[in-house]
Amino acid sequence: MKGAWTSTWVLLLIILTSGCQIRMDVLDPAGGVAEEQRHLIVFSLVVMMIVLVVVFILFTKFIWRYRENSKADRPDHTLRNDNKKLEITWTVLPVVVLGVLAVPMLMQAYNLETKADRDAYRVKVTGRQYWWQFDYPNENIRTSQELHLPANEEVVIELEASDVIHSFWVPQLGGKKDAIPGETNRLYLETGDPGVYEGKCAELCGAAHTDMRFQVVVEEEEDFEAWSDAVKQDITPEETEPEEEGSANKGERIFQENCLACHAVDGADTENDRGPNLALYGDQKKISGMMTNDKENLKAWLREPESFKPSTEMPAYDNLTEEEMDALVDYLHSITSDKAEEGRD
Ligand code: HEC
Ligand SMILES: [Cu+2]
Fold first, then answer.
1. HEC profile of the chain
2. Is the pTM of this model over 0.90?
């Protein structure tokens, strides 16, 4: 018995603590669509609670009334269906309840599908094992893992996949939708106030599916424009003489020798896209959508990406010396929008 209590407590502790690490809260909407969806959730919950309460009251009443030794009338124990009124009531009532639930839901689903054909701000999102690629046709740029969107804007996400089926889901912005290879699905969303919202793949797609996370950065129009301008710029560490080559310079060289085949760094939709586009990587909040983008984590990621994302295509660079690794990380972290502005004047 003691063991049972202990495991209950441990389970409770796991449940209570695990939810707090990454916030993906459906009931805390940050945009119009998610808000309507919360109304639907609350509405269905209320309807279902009413049904539940009525059933419980009747249940308790009957248990009490026909308890052992009670003097209640028990005319006949065989089941007979001769009470027309009751028969009709419990056939019609569930149909009415289902109708009450279905009508607003179908209306909203229809409404969202119609809005997805609107002339809203468009982003093409491609799901790939196990990361996300974002193409912005208006801005003519490409980024990965961090989706930037202007605040208070209608957005249509055009969903595609390059390998298997994934599913795009940002709970605080609205519902989820599948990204299917060879097809384009449209998902209508509305952004609200600026903020950073967590997203996740919601369709089992392979060994690292659980960590196929991404962030959505919603920002004011002018910040969004400044960001997209910065992505377009070619940011290189300041030139130094070879004998006093700075760490970031050295890192850039290592990067060009080892990584350029899979990673672009300039936000362009180039051919070398087997890995995420690392445009403005120094500003990116997380590594691979899942851990803080600091020096130690980035080194750990480059040395052994498989330990974070099993079966990822990203090779392990455990052959680099500590100094080379530092240089590489310094370089990646030097690609920031601050540098882009310096470069402009
Ligand atoms: C064979 C192609 C390939 C090569 C070569 C490669 N990578 Fe990657 N890289 C990937 C893929 C694929 C991912 C996506 C992993 C994931 O998140 O699922 C990735 C992810 C990353 C990320 C995380 C991106 C993010 O959004 O946080 C970094 C940083 C990175 N690579 C740096 C490097 C560096 C530095 C090198 C060279 C030393 C390199 N990569 C070489 C394929 C490659
Ligand atoms: Cu996926």
1. CHHHHHHHHHHHHHHHHHCCCCCCCCCCCCCHHHHHHHHHHHHHHHHHHHHHHHHHHHHHHHHHHCCCCCCCCCCCCCCCCCCHHHHHHHHHHHHHHHHHHHHHHHHHHHHHHHHCCCCCEEEEEEEECCEEEEEECCCCEEEECEEEEECCCEEEEEEEECCCCEEEEECCCEEEEEECECCCEEEEEECCCCEEEEEEECCCCCCCHHHCEEEEEEECHHHHHHHHHHHHCCCCCCCCCHHHCCHHHHHHHHHHHHCCCCCCCCCCCCCCCCCCCCCCHHHCCEECCCEECCHHHHHHHHHCHHHCCCCCCCCCCCCCCHHHHHHHHHHHHHCCHHHHHHHHC
2. no
